[in-house]
TrEMBL record:
NCBIfam families: argH
Source organism per UniProt: Aeromicrobium yanjiei
Gene name in the database record: argH
Main localization category: cytoplasm
Source domain of life: Bacteria
Localization: Cytoplasm
Name by which UniProt lists this protein: Argininosuccinate lyase
Amino acid sequence: QKTALWGGRFATGPSPELVELSRSTHFDWRLAPYDLAGSRAHAFVLQAAGLLSRDDCTALIAGIDALAADVESGAFVAEPGDEDVHTALERGLLERLGPDLGGRLRAGRSRNDQIATLFKMYLRDHGRRIGGLVTDLARAIAEQAETHLGVAMPGRTHLQHAQPVLLSHHLLAHAWPLVRDLERLADWDARVAADSPYGAGALAGSSLGLDPEKVAADLGFTGSTANSIDGTSARDFVAEFAFVTAQIGIDLSRLAEEIIIWNTKEFDFVTLHDGYSTGSSIMPQKKNPDIAELARGKSGRLVGNLTGLLATLKGLPLAYNRDLQEDKEPVFDSIDTLEVLLPAFTGMVATLTFNTERMQELAPQGFALATDIAEWLVREGVPFRDAHELSGACVQLCEQRGIELWDLSDEDFAAISPALTPGVREVLTVEGSLASRDSRGGTALVRVTEQLAELRSRLP
Ligand code: ARG
């Protein structure tokens, strides 16, 4: 019994080696519910075009519903002879409805327009799911920022102490990229929604008077593709989705790396919750930041999925080529990866405890207030070039004596420059430094409080 969707012009069936190579049901089965939704929409346009009687359409829909229930329950599964999800589901329909009725559904559609449509539907659903998980993480970061409003920490450039910042400001700097990822997902979704390929056929469109706009609307799209060749062969929607997932992975990896460093004995900035850290099989004392490490590691895998996909697409001629079957596994892997990683990562962030005393204590160290001296001098009328030099001289003197900037006496300051009057001491505190950085986007408490509200207003 023949289950392939082709074969009329072949004298023999496919070789076992070809069957083995060609089969995709082990990874495309997850598209089955979308294929069945496409079949329902297709049955309706066949009827509207006068190619299916009302009774036949009703019977077909009932058969598709029954098959959908069996797919859902696991009673219907792909067999080794089924080439792909489309082939398996047509077999299922033929088994339920017989060849006369079951064999009518395929008119005017091709696996090429089907797969492009189903893949979009699947990605749109998972884009929404991943968006929800990213939102949860952004909210968890915002929560931590709100809890710790007012706590100072060392701000770094080149991983060296630079200027004091608020812990909340730093945490929110990890949340904004996630906001942009969410906006990327939404932009992507709107673009994909406007472009349903169903009805494009193998590449050239259909001669049967089927309405692609009607199918598109039934499947949750806002429009159908303007070019049937483009609709069946373009995969930039997959690459763009893979990019957004890779970027999310990279954004997680940057926070992950900081948590790993903050969790060291040397930094001692954070304590991980027991439920979100792991032990060692030999060293009884160990408590490891495995979630953060897995996030850092898996970001490489997400990047690999994107570059592998782009390599598959490069140089492909129009229209559909079987190479395009290779577009699914990398992106499925990226989705599966993020859907397990994000909830664990969010739990780790939400339960993180900050050693705020130590962070505050370290905030001004390493001469992190040197810029404040220079900017105080500028406000006193000194040109910045000179102010920079004078503040640098203060740092040099402190380094020689092994003291901090606020340990310098009034006489020390005066000896460096008469412009350094005792008034300079007002900026030699962390509180003074933070409060002075009150420009939009700055680390002053008022600004960070506004920023927190702005971030929350950008979350869905
Ligand atoms: N399984 C294929 C894919 O994922 C769709 C089938 C198209 N096959 C074909 N011979 N035109 O792209």
